[in-house]
Design a protein that fits this description.
ABC transporter involved in vitamin B12 uptake, BtuC; two-stranded antiparallel sheet; 11 helices; mainly alpha
Length: 313
């Protein structure tokens, strides 16, 4: 494999991995506090894209304001899901909350089909032109059929650069919230000992609600960047990215924010590089995520950044 092709696959893998990481952080934050896998997270990712799409196309809002509507809408939807579906089950067995999460996921999918329809909508003319530009690095210019063509060049779409910049800024903001604000301190405290925190006067329900809002907003950022890279939206768009992001969270160590980021990047790199090295295996691309999960958990069941827990008898 030529070095240019390897670098191209590396850039594409990092870009995809960062999108998985954005979604995976929402999974791991909710699990860290509630010990609940929020299987509706992928559908919140999907709904945020629809919010953005219709805010821009139907209501004529500027693209940046439409994105803000998508992020805020996802945060409010995440808080609503917690209040309606999960809050009444705070003291119920975990299996009850897990079944409820699956039910909420299916409900949001069906609701999206009823409201938005099952036909995919295109995002190609929704975002401004600079989202679709492609920058070329290196390469050789050859003449073919009277035209000059650049070959062996590294092509970086502008959306990839935007993904790197936005993701970095988003994770810095997340770090600031978690480690430099009272709300973040409350989230970390609740994840350690819910009962002790409630005795100290901290509202556990409000803290959990903020966690859902923050995780859903991160999923919305990932969703907006996702349709910038793959410009189509339909009600089932959140299923596979959500499932892979869950795999990334487990690989990194469910409950660890840093682990979710590492797991997402690792998953994106392996997925793209494997297809690049073995193009004949492209049809099995989605299977690589689950193969990686099985192999890694066979050697480190707690994940890369996960902590071992004592089994209670």
């Amino acid at each position: 494999m030529k070095i240019e092709i390897f670098i191209q696959h590396l850039i594409n893998g990092l870009s995809l991995g960062l999108l998985y990481a954005l979604i995976a952080v929402g999974y791991t934050m909710v699990y860290g506090i509630l010990k609940l896998i929020n299987f509706a997270h992928g559908e919140i990712f999907m709904m945020s894209i629809f919010f953005t799409f219709y805010a821009i196309t139907l209501f004529g809002l500027p693209w940046w304001l439409g994105m803000a509507v998508g992020i805020v809408g996802a945060a409010l939807l995440g808080m609503s899901v917690d209040k309606i579906a999960y809050k009444p089950l705070r003291n119920a067995p975990r299996i009850s909350a897990l079944i409820t999460a699956i039910g909420v996921s299916m409900f949001l999918q069906s609701l999206a089909i009823v409201i938005f329809g099952g036909i995919p909508e295109s995002f190609r003319n929704v975002f401004p032109e600079f989202f679709t530009k492609i920058f070329t690095i290196g390469g050789e210019v050859i003449e073919a059929r009277g035209r000059e063509i650049v070959v062996n060049a590294i092509r970086i779409p502008s959306i990839t650069i935007i993904t790197f910049v936005v993701t970095l800024i988003t994770f810095l903001i997340l770090w600031f919230i978690l480690y430099r604000t009272k709300a973040g301190m409350a989230m970390r405290a609740v994840s350690m000992d819910t009962k002790a925190v409630s005795l100290m006067g901290i509202s556990v329900n409000k803290t959990i609600s903020m966690t859902f809002a923050l995780g859903s907003a991160l999923a919305a950022v990932g969703g907006i960047l996702w349709v910038g890279k793959y410009p189509q939206v339909w009600p089932m768009i959140g299923f596979m990215p959500g499932l892979k992001a869950f795999v990334a969270a487990v690989i990194g160590g469910i409950g660890s924010v840093a682990g979710a980021i590492i797991g997402g990047i690792l998953l994106g790199l392996i997925e793209i590089l494997t297809v690049g090295l073995m193009p004949q295996m492209a049809g099995y691309r989605d299977a690589f995520a689950f193969i990686l999960l099985i192999v890694l958990l066979s050697f480190k069941p707690s994940g890369i950044m996960g902590k071992k827990e004592l089994v209670k008898v």
